[in-house]
Give the backbone structure.
Amino acid sequence: MRSDARRNREKLLAVARAAFAAADGPVALEAIAREAGVGIGTLYRHFPTREELVDAVYAAELDDVTASAGALLARSSPEVALRAWMDRYAAFVETKRGMADVLRAGVASGRIATPLTRRRISGAVAALLEAGARAGTLRADADPEDVTTMLLGVFLATSAAHTPEQTGRLLDLLVDALSPRPAG
């Protein structure tokens, strides 16, 4: 891909990410192209359908979320990194509101593989839990799949009310539940 085409694609993805995150419903592709400073034809050359744009935004954000676990561990203790990563994951889930219909269709058609997404999220959780178990700050017996299920439950339970405060409290409780228990 030529450098100018790559820059246009990156601009389109960045603008689409912000537009989908801010939207409660469908986003006009023309508005994304205009905000990125390109014509609608350029958008369609990179992303021939709305679904392909949504898929690309989703994939880029999933990459960011899963990669952030390692970066957080490099800067913070495992339990602090875990809590910060949970906030990052919550933000990822929250920004999907503007893409919800297209994402559901992508899952239903098999374009977006939920088992792969879940494995990647659980892999990030596993890295955080393993670091915490080695440091003695997180339970060694916590199953990453169980933690992922609990996270999804928190996000599902708080999605209708859009209350970041309640989400934060529930995530604090989850991290507390993952703390080692005193012997006896």
Remarks:
- The chain has two domains: 1-48, 50-177.
- The domain at 50-177 is CATH 1.10.357.10 (Tetracycline Repressor; domain 2).
